[in-house]
Amino acid sequence: MLLRRRTSPHNRLLRRILFAAIFFLLNAHIFIYFLHHNDSPDEDIAALWDYNPDITIPRVHGVGKVFIAANHWISGKILKPFWINGLLMLIQQLGPENVFVSIYENGSWDETPAMLRELDRELERLGVARRVLIEAITHRQQVEEVVKLGDDKPGWVMTARGRKELRRIPMLAKLRNRLLEPLDDMRRRGETVDRVLFLNDVVFTAKDVIRLLKTRGGNYTAACSMDFNKPQYYYDTFALRDTNGREAPTQRFPFFAGGESRDAMMAGLPVPVKSCWNGMVAFDAAPFMREQQPLRFRGVEDSLAVTHVEGSECCLIHADNANTGFQSAQRSGVWINPLVRVGYNFPAYEYQKMHMYRWPEYFTSIPVRIGTSLLGLPWGKKQVVQRVRKWEGEESGRREPGDFCLVDEMHVLVENGWKHV
Ligand SMILES: *[C@@H]1O[C@H](CO)[C@@H](O)[C@H](O)[C@H]1NC(C)=O
Ligand SMILES: *[C@@H]1O[C@H](CO)[C@@H](O)[C@H](O)[C@H]1NC(C)=O
Are 245 and 311 in contact (CB under 8 A)? Predict the structure, then answer.
């Protein structure tokens, strides 16, 4: 005999709550869907990179002059068709006279140098001011140098492997600073620049960049995109810090632990953060152009790095920018524009374009949020804090303004790339 139990009032209440929750979430979902529906899912994505040099494109106004900076190393797969065409289409919209392109390539062994030379020729034809530097250096040449244990050479530290090795971050800072060299000449010539835009080797469209440049109507010290390598997971954990200086505890939407940054991310609004890089970043150019101590990239001091503490040059630059007291009422704060999402490959780009504020990413954010709060993520970095304190105590005047950037890591260069040690 089949016995059917009658639902108890308790169960009925539970069911009602469940229905209410589903109803609420669906509404939220539909609301967010309409908020973002201008990225029409049926648009022909591949056509976004159809560069046609012979057509006139309506100009975008109100952005000003943009200094576009990019390092390239073995990025042939991204350069064609995405990066190069994205850049050329961006220049068509901003106007060739409103951009300066600075590219630095360092010893790639794929088609990168050839592709960049071809781009250089096209920029020439368009009349774009630029510097495209292609250099044939290798890691082997850099790490070959043997630094004796007793010698102090900037950038070289003693590692747990019992030898002096070359740190990766100061090298990256140097590479990025090389991109900025033309700014010095421009300043001397009295030329002005409004924004400095860094583009990683990512898939992006001209529309993405223009949206980024127009974040908050241009009211930002820095504005970043969000970057994805695997389709569902954001990539640059090394540089991203929320308004409280905390790391993002999860690589999945909505990334941040509870607080201002996560609320804005959930709502699809510009997300205030302390630091970001994440694929593309536009800075107010003023701090880079000032005569006294212009803003540049750096790593932490070797004496701190040797204690197994490292920080990304892309995070430290935000710390330094805030620390040098640079302020502007018209352009303030560091923000992520969650409507600008780029990928280190096409599948990741396409996935996030379609799914971040829709099914399934917006919905799976529920278990993601519950999980991170149950685990109490992100966990503090007690050891790092202690090491920094000890380092500061050892010599007067020692201070690291980018303490929120620091992690318990050590990166050194090796012959075919780099390594955690
Ligand atoms: C070239 O630059 C990239 C960063 O853009 C870096 O990862 C790579 O190690 C550099 N290679 C050499 C040989 O310096
Ligand atoms: C720029 O944004 C900041 C921070 O939100 C705000 O205080 C300031 O009033 C804004 N400036 C303008 C000109 O809108």
Answer: no
